[in-house]
Design goal:
five-stranded antiparallel beta sheet, Nuclear Transport Factor 2, Chain: A
């Protein structure tokens, strides 16, 4: 089931990328003019945010499983590549490997943003939240840069917390407990 969900997610991502990459040739048959990549979008919608979070967590999962952080680094923005070697990323997530934390289930849950997404005019998107897996939730603090017409991972901070601690850690107010159901009493005669 996991493989089917992952395949569907990857297919959607590829279809989105392919749709964005289509260009049309001029009517006179000449080669299309070279264009600059589009600037950063003025807004980012929920589906795109979900894809960015999920694909980042799965890339991290694959890096943790294989011990090879080269692809995670190569998918990143130039700032991530300049500031981190694959070995640096491996060291950052050594505890994940040691504890054998499985991030694969994160594709089956909707990420929850604990803070409103921050999108700057210079193409930096900051996302803070968690994925409500159990018994531990996966928490993330991700920053993406818009480069060459696509969002690229610039900063990655991922950890876990116990699911029961989630509301307290996020500063959320716990939902009130339901009122107890009264025990039936015999009717007076």
């Amino acid at each position: 089931m996991f493989r089917v969900a992952l395949a569907a997610l990857l297919a959607a991502l590829i279809a989105t990328a392919a749709a964005g990459a289509q260009t049309s040739a001029p009517a006179d048959g000449s080669a299309p003019a070279a264009t600059q990549p589009p600037g950063p979008p003025a807004q980012v919608g929920g589906p795109e945010i979900s894809i960015l979070i999920r694909t980042t967590l799965i890339a991290l999962h694959d890096a943790n499983v294989t011990g090879n952080y080269t692809v995670l680094r190569d998918l990143g923005a130039s700032v991530l590549q300049v500031n981190n070697t694959a070995a640096d990323l491996g060291a950052q997530f050594a505890e994940f490997r040691k504890q054998r934390i499985n991030l694969a289930p994160t594709v089956l849950f909707d990420p929850v943003l604990d803070q409103k997404p921050e999108l700057s005019t210079d193409g930096v998107l900051h996302l803070v939240g968690h994925v409500p897996t159990k018994p531990q939730e996966v928490v993330f603090d991700l920053t993406f840069g818009y480069e060459a017409g696509a969002w690229r991972l610039a900063v990655i901070k991922v950890g876990t917390r116990m699911a029961s601690d989630a509301a307290t850690a996020a500063g959320a107010v716990a939902a009130p407990s339901p009122a107890p159901v009264p025990t039936p009493r015999p009717r007076p005669k």
